[in-house]
Design brief:
The protein has 359 residues and is of the alpha+beta class. It has 3 domains: 20-117, Alpha-Beta Plaits, CATH 3.30.70; 128-191 and 255-353, Sulfite Reductase Hemoprotein, domain 1; 195-250, Alpha-Beta Plaits (2-Layer Sandwich), CATH 3.30.70. Helices cover 26% and strands 21% of the residues. The chain contains 10 helices and 15 strands. Strands 1, 2, 3, 4, 5 and 6 form a 6-stranded antiparallel sheet that branches. The chain has a 5-stranded mixed sheet with strand order 7-8-9-14-15, with helices on one face. Strand 11 and strand 12 (227-232) form a beta hairpin. It starts with 23 loop residues before the first helix and ends in a 27-residue tail after the last helix. The structure holds iron/sulfur cluster (2 copies). The site of one iron/sulfur cluster has 16 residues, from loops. One iron/sulfur cluster is lined by residues 193-194, 213-214, 216, 218-219, 232, 237-243, 252.
C-alpha cells in the first residue's frame, strides 16, 4: 500500500489521560490520602498521609455552558485558584487550592459572578440530566430546562447541609432514561403508542431499521393505501419512543400525551444497604415548559417529608424502607393509583420490584 493510500490513523482514541490535568498535589498524593472533612457547605478538605492538605470548592453550573460562562469560570480558576479545575458528573465545576487563605476569596469571586457554592455532603447536589437536545435525537422534553427550573427552587438545599444524607436527583428526556437512576428521578413518560403518518413513511424511512429498533417487536412492515408503510401492534407497544429517531413519521411526542413521571429510591451505593432500583411514585404529571411547576412541587414535597422524617445518614431508599411505602404515600400526600402497578406481560419477574405488590 503506498503512503498516499494508507488509511488515516485515528485522531480520536478515547479520553486523554486525566493525570496531566490534575492539581500537582493531587497527582503527588494519588493513592496516599488519609482523610477528608467538610469545613463548610461546598468545601471539602482532603489531607494526605504526609499531612498535606488540599481544599476543593464546588460550584454549580447550568450544565449546558456557553463559552462566555466557561471562560469566566476558567478565569476564576486561573486568578483565584491554582489553575486546575475539574467537572463532576453532576455538572459542577470544582476548584482545588493548596492554601486555606485562598478559599474565602475564591468563594467570594464565584458568588460575585453569579455562580453558587454548595452541593457537598448532606445537600441536594446539582441534578444530573441526560444528553438532551444537544446530542440525542429522541428527547420528549428539555431535561436541562427541568434541571435549571428545579434547581432555582432548590437553591437553599444546594447551599446548605439540611438533608439526612446527600440527595441525588436525575432527569431524563425519554423513557429509555440514559441518565440513570437517583434518589429522585424525573423521567418522560409517553402515554400512547406512536401515531404513524403513512404518507411520509415511504419518503423518509428505511423500514427495516425502524422494525429492528423496537425492543418488543411491535412494529411490522405493512402496505397502507397501496404504499409501503408500517403498523404497530398496540398491545405489545410499551410507548418507549425508540422508533421515533429512525422514523420521524412515528409521531409519539405529543403536547397532551407526553407526560413526566417521578421515581424515588434509586441508589447505586452499597454503603449502608444494598443497591436499589428506583420506583414510580407519581405519573401523568404535565410536561409543562419552561418551568415545570407541577413536577417541581412534587419533588419539593418529597424532599420536605424526607428532610423532616429521615434519620441522620438515611438515604431516600433507607428512609422509605424504614417507614414503608404506605407511610411514604400518606406523608407525601401522593395518590396511589393503578399506574403504580407493573402490568407489563413480563411483570411476573418484576412485580416484586413495584411499590405494593409482593409475592
Ligand atoms: S434520556 Fe432518552 S432522549 Fe434523553 S438523551 Fe437519553 S436516550 Fe436521548
Ligand atoms: S414506541 Fe417503542 S415499543 Fe412502541 S412501537 Fe415504537 S419502539 Fe416499539
Amino acid at each position: 500500500m503506498s503512503e498516499n493510500t494508507k488509511p488515516r490513523s485515528p485522531t480520536e482514541s478515547g479520553c486523554p489521560d486525566g493525570f496531566q490535568y490534575m492539581h500537582p498535589l493531587m497527582r503527588k498524593n494519588y493513592g496516599n490520602w488519609d482523610h477528608h472533612d467538610h469545613p463548610r457547605p461546598g468545601v471539602l478538605k482532603h489531607v494526605s498521609k504526609d499531612g498535606e492538605p488540599i481544599w476543593t470548592v464546588k460550584c454549580a453550573t447550568q450544565r449546558i455552558l456557553d463559552t462566555f460562562s466557561l471562560r469566566t469560570l476558567c478565569d476564576i480558576g486561573d486568578n483565584f485558584a491554582d489553575g486546575h479545575v475539574h467537572f463532576t458528573m453532576r455538572s459542577n465545576i470544582e476548584y482545588m487550592v493548596a492554601d486555606e487563605a485562598k478559599v474565602q476569596p475564591l468563594i467570594e469571586e464565584i458568588e460575585k459572578n453569579g455562580f453558587i457554592v454548595g452541593g457537598t455532603a448532606a445537600s441536594v447536589s446539582s441534578i444530573s440530566h441526560t444528553q438532551g437536545w444537544l446530542h440525542c435525537d429522541i428527547p420528549g422534553t428539555d431535561a436541562s430546562g427541568v434541571v435549571k427550573s428545579m434547581m432555582d427552587e432548590l437553591i437553599d438545599e444546594f447551599k446548605n447541609h439540611n438533608m439526612p444524607n446527600r440527595v441525588h436527583i436525575t432527569t431524563s428526556c425519554c423513557q429509555i432514561n440514559c441518565g440513570g437512576q437517583g434518589d429522585i428521578a424525573i423521567n418522560v413518560q409517553h402515554t400512547k403508542p406512536p401515531k404513524i403518518d403513512h404518507d411520509l413513511v415511504g419518503n423518509a424511512c428505511e423500514r427495516p431499521s425502524v422494525v429492528a429498533r423496537c425492543p418488543v417487536a411491535a412494529i411490522r412492515p405493512a402496505v397502507v393505501n397501496g404504499k409501503p408503510s408500517l403498523e404497530v401492534d398496540e398491545k405489545k407497544c410499551i410507548c418507549c419512543g425508540a422508533c421515533f429517531p429512525p422514523c420521524p413519521p412515528m409521531q409519539i411526542n405529543d403536547a397532551e400525551h407526553t407526560k413526566l413521571a417521578i421515581w424515588v429510591g434509586g441508589n447505586h451505593s452499597n454503603a449502608r444497604s444494598k443497591p436499589t432500583f428506583q420506583k414510580l411514585v407519581a405519573a401523568g404529571i404535565p410536561n409543562n415548559p419552561p418551568r415545570w411547576p407541577e413536577a417541581t412541587a412534587i419533588v419539593k414535597k418529597i424532599l420536605k417529608c424526607y428532610k423532616e422524617d429521615g434519620r441522620p445518614w438515611e438515604r431516600m431508599n433507607d428512609w422509605i424502607e424504614r417507614i414503608g411505602w404506605p407511610a411514604f404515600f400518606e406523608q407525601t400526600g401522593l395518590p396511589f393509583t393503578k399506574f403504580h402497578l407493573d402490568n407489563w406481560r413480563g411483570a411476573r419477574n418484576s412485580l416484586n420490584a413495584s411499590n405494593h405488590v409482593r409475592f
